[in-house]
Model the fold of this input.
Amino acid sequence: QVQLVESGGGLVQAGGSLRLSCVASGSVFSINVGGWYRQAPGKQRELVAALTSGETTNYADSVKGRFTISRDNAKNTVYLQMNSLKPEDTAVYYCNAQTYYSGSYSWSWGQGTQVTVSS
Done:
């Protein structure tokens, strides 16, 4: 079984920065694909950023140039650096990752971390 635990959310003023972390534990040898999604009240969950095993990144247009996704393979951790935050970035942020263990891959979700940006 795989557990993804996010941290780093909180309350920040517009223009500020936060760094989210997602640590994979349990039956995990490595993270193959990592991604961050967010869901604001009354809205659908949307992809914010993704990082493939080949280190290709993909960002939502709304965060390009402000957010950066990265990973630390030794720590089985995926990060989301968020700069120049805007009130419209307020949402619950979820980590989604494909992990590898003992010859098989599996997808998991974290429990989410709240990010609130005040104007």
Summary: DSSP finds no helices and eleven strands in the chain.
